[in-house]
Amino acid sequence: MKEENKKDAVAETSVPAQEAPPVEAAEGPAAPAEEGAAIDPAAQEPAEGHAAQGEEKGFLADNVRSLSPMQLVLKRFFRSKLSLIGLATIVALFLFCWLGPLFSPYGEETIDYDANGRLNVTVTEIKIPLTDENGDYVYDEDGNQVTVSVWRVQKSEMLVDTLANPSAEHWFGTDKNGYDVLTRIMYGGRVSLTLSLIVVLLETVFGVILGGLAGYFGKWVDSLIMRIVDIFNCIPTLPLLLIIGSVLEGAGVDPNDRIYFMMVFLTLFGWTGIARIVRGQILSLREQEFMVSATARGLSTARKIFRHLVPNVMPQLIVSMTLGLGSVILMEASLSYLGMGVPLTKASWGGMINDVKDPTVLQNYLNLWVPPGICIVLAVLGFNFIGDGLRDAFDPKAKR
Amino acid sequence: MLFKNKKTTSSDGAQPAKTKAPIADAHYLSVRESRAIAKSNARVIRALEKRKKRTHVSESEYLCEMQDPNNIVEFDDLRTYFFTDAGVSKAVDGVTFSIPRGATVGVVGESGCGKSVTSLSLMQLVQAPQGQIVGGSIRFNMGNKAYDIAKMPISEMRKIRGKQIAMIFQEPMTSLNPVFRIGYQLDEMVLLHTPGCTKEQAKARSLQMLELVGIAAPERVYRCYPHELSGGMRQRVMIAIALSCDPRLIIADEPTTALDVTIQAQVLDLLREIKGKIDGSIMLITHDLGVIAEMADYVVVMYAGRVIESGTTAEIFHNPLHPYTVGLQKSKPVVNRKVERLYNIPGQVPNPIDMPDYCYFKDRCTRCTARCEGEYPHFIQVSPTHRVACYLYAGEDGKGGPDA
After folding, report:
1. A68–B225: do the CB atoms touch at under 8 Å?
2. What's the pTM?
3. A215 to chain B, minimum CA–CA distance in Å?
4. Which residues contact A354 (CB under 8 A, 6 or more apart)?
5. Which ipTM did the prediction report?
6. CATH architecture for residues A181-394
């Protein structure tokens, strides 16, 4: 709905100044206020008879061109530096994750078998008991056998280029399985970003339907749905998800399908926030005069809730959706870290950080876990910046 | 009646208690009283809501006969009560009047005298669950048959709302959904009530309606959002929406109150002009007698939930009988007449909870007589169209013809 409006709005304005990119417009003089744009009815007093004539001549009011609500929101959004940074970050991440692999010589599951002559060095200590001339074992004064250590050094050509340091070939090195870290980050980002988008969309659909019903009907419907929300809010999400993970594993669910289950469960625990927001808004909106007027026009209940009330909640919804994206990414990362996410051969940001469980990696191979960590931080921050920016942009009380 | 009024004697009973109990007790309900009220309210509301929420009700249950087939609406002893925590507020208590086909009926009265509640009852839009139609009937002429709206379940009301009866609200600023274009809201109404209508037809109809209400650039306004229009323009759009399905009756609930004077005049001109073009009646609710005089064919004067006088506009304006009507007329500023201070009726409309059975206007009336202490006055038919509920015009038996 919003998208549609936006397109219409852009098509509608034909004054060049307003077609300029919003960034530029933001630095220009202040936009005409909404109030100033109201059409002056006096200009249209001649009415009826002169209507056709008026169309040709153009009315005084037709000279006033105002910004559509969507344009206003975009203008305010792009005025804020922080939201711009957020938007840039997210766009960059999306490009990185979807276009990046095209330029990478490695695939998600490509193991680099060319170790460039790196050697696998194994050192084994062999203890040989010390013997004297007679061939008897030598004992020290405590009665312990005296031994001599011999170190065997085995060198072999490495079959797989594992744990390679950052180089021109592997910008962020390779991990324990010989996967290219940079490529894995790209693919892992695809999982994190799509998963969070889908989960947030599902949450919103759920939340809007249930919150809408609760807010519109009130009484026992409201009590029932809100108590369900309370119950869901009481459940500690992480432990429960871990238990569900073990149960899934026990039930022999294909590891490749586990991600879908994860989506379902994340949705199940996430819709409550949206439902609360929608309910609260609708509770106040349904008392508005335009809803009485909608009833008087004979609209059906479903139409009133989902066609007339929900679009009014859209601003709040969009804000909470963008903020929700960040938290779902975090949730997904923690679950992957705990080994509940995508299967091992598939990449995900959380799963890559999982490598720090090995102390050697934690100490010596920062290139394995720092980059995906930074990606998570960037994604979450980016979505939060956008969310904050949108919240300010949608704020009807904003003056500028 | 569905409920028992437990507190009928409370006004007498409070008298001796006043001396003993602290003053607060006289003003506030005791815990026991309020509990009794809440209990009886809950019972009555539940029963009424249950009846209203039924589905699949056979039509025969709310079919009725019009007393006069030339009427569009007949209110017959309509009672709409609000079950509040302080007791039953009889917002509309036995209202009887009718709206003839093609006529404009003005309903006047001070704020809080039940004008709006009467019109909302007609649309079954009274704030539920507190507000309920508890008795009487509203016969609505559908053309070939008549429905009793007071008995119709909510699910059936959609047959009537919008299509048969349209409503113009007081606040054009808030009566349009802010997130939709004017065009969408007009089209929606047309599409909803015209079976088999295509989007192009709906748009054509919407533009035609916008032109009818005197909007000079319909194509432009069609694409506007409500906030881009001024109050007068928005009220025109509201009127266009109301008219778009050729309703038999238009309820205009103080359509000009929120507008400034020049726009008021424009909107009234428009309403009058449109009345000639459409084949429908208008129920005009206002507290502005000037508007009534200009627009209405018949006038109904309401006070504290009851009709106290009704007649043709000429009768009410040239021969006002009820002291309240006279007072209303006197408190209207008139051009070319010099007065020191504009008349006002002292006091205010009483809250219609536990009203005693005498003329509700008695306390504010300047022409009160000893007979006014008696029961609420019956209607006195002054002429075939003019009737008034006041003892001043009653015969010896309290019911007879004019002898004032």
Report:
1. yes
2. 0.71
3. 16
4. A336, A337, A339
5. 0.76
6. Orthogonal Bundle (1.10)
